[in-house]
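Lab notebook page, bench 4
Experiment: in silico fold of construct C2
Operator: M.H.
Input chain length: 207 residues
Purpose: comparison with the prior construct
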Amino acid sequence: MITTARRMNTSGLNQGTSGNLSQRVEDGFLLTPTGMDYDALVPEDIVLMRFDGSHEGRRAPSSEWRFHRDILARRPEVGAVLHAHSMFCTTLACLRRGIPSFHYMVTTAGGADIRCAPYATFGTEELSQHAVEALEGRKACLLANHGMLALGKDLAGAFKLAVEVETLAAMYWRALQVGEPVLLDAEEMARVIEKFKTYGQQPALKG
């Protein structure tokens, strides 16, 4: 977790102590602590959270523990949740714009678009509810005037998707400087979603 948290900053996905990261474990989920520099983290700083909202450890959990808990509770296929204030996703989120079907790679987030959840104060149950709804049938979303969320089977998957979503946000933002991008239609996006079910799968090696 600490390695992934530090990669969030070195990759430019996150800045300072903003953002947070969770990973499902047998007794609940592990969560980064609130307000701590990722470079200073040691394993004892990671917080063990329960799904009832209680926690163990020497540090206080991230203020956003509620949406980590609610996403992991409702999405059994998800093993890790990444939240970042990445530059281009946050720029779009401050405009309250999601990412539409301007590029076929939008489907890597699970659907024909990447939604922007309505605004609510950070750390609140209201924000958690908005996030869960925006993630329905999706693996990523933007949070209005706030940032982004990416889900994965594990930490590596969540990080990879977050980088992809930030890249798409940057492309979309740049396209908007010229005009409104031409969007791919629902039929094409459905075709791409189907193709992605087997994308990148290599045949078994012989011998």
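Observations: Strands lie at 20-25, 28-31, 47-49, 55-56, 80-84, 116-117, 140-143, 147-152. Helices lie at 2-10, 65-74, 87-94, 125-134, 155-178, 186-196.
Next step: discuss at group meeting.
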